[in-house]
Specification:
alpha/beta, Rossmann fold, 6-stranded mixed sheet, 41% helix, globular, binds adenosine-5'-triphosphate, nucleotide-binding, ABC transporter related, ATP binding, AAA+_ATPase
Length: 258
Amino acid sequence: MLHLDAVSKQFGGLPALSDVTFRVPQGQITALIGPNGAGKSTLINCITGVLTPTCGSISLANGTNSQEISTLPSHAISRLGVARTFQNLKLFERLSVLDNVLAGLNNEAGSSLIMALLRLPYLRHRERQLKLRALEALDRFGLADKADWPAGVMAYGDKKRLELARATVSQPQLILLDEPVAGLNATETLAVEQQLRRLRQEGQTLLLVEHDMELVMGLADQVVVLDSGCVIACGTPDEVQKNPRVLEAYLGSMEATA
Ligand SMILES: Nc1ncnc2c1ncn2[C@@H]1O[C@H](COP(=O)(O)OP(=O)(O)OP(=O)(O)O)[C@@H](O)[C@H]1O
């Protein structure tokens, strides 16, 4: 689904990513982990077009088609079916919960201003369809009864789920989840875990950046470990947990912060 080949990114000559190569297989959950400063956010930003890699290739493969996306801007990558959630929530706090999810269908709304002003019947029908899909997405994440609330007044856990509803509503090819359970309590974390399992059952491809190792090891099909911008391990949760380089990277980072 997503192929990364020798992706490197430098900031002012300093390497943040070096020769990162791995694949995100279709219909699976791939977790990207690593100590603080390992390069996870930089990589997510390269995949979503927020940053352009210094060199290397990032391509979206669908059947026999493969498209290079490393040079495309964010909106073009989003139109190709890559959605994301953010580590620090990025919601429209003053808009309603429903409107926040509708923003996730922006690519499909696709009407011109003139058409919107004319309020053609076709367009009204289209709007109703999109609203229905947004409500369904809210319902999946247990938020349908809050559709009219301003997003800003919701509890933190609900905001995290709203981001998931917005990222999934367009049924993207690939969803990047940046720390989806950070700051959630055990019950909320379990609920998100179940929702992610359900998405996988439905065939959704997920790339998950997460510090919660219990969640990662219990959920992921494949774990990719970054350290100082390099992939130091890639395999099943079992393989990765036994890998001496991984243990060393995590122990090293714990000593550094002790
Ligand atoms: N815009 C930037 N300019 C300069 N250096 C940067 C920039 N963004 C990231 N870096 C550096 O790149 C390296 C990787 O940072 P990055 O934020 O990608 O790590 P991370 O794995 O996401 O860390 P964390 O788990 O703490 O979020 C770090 O050394 C960081 O200081």
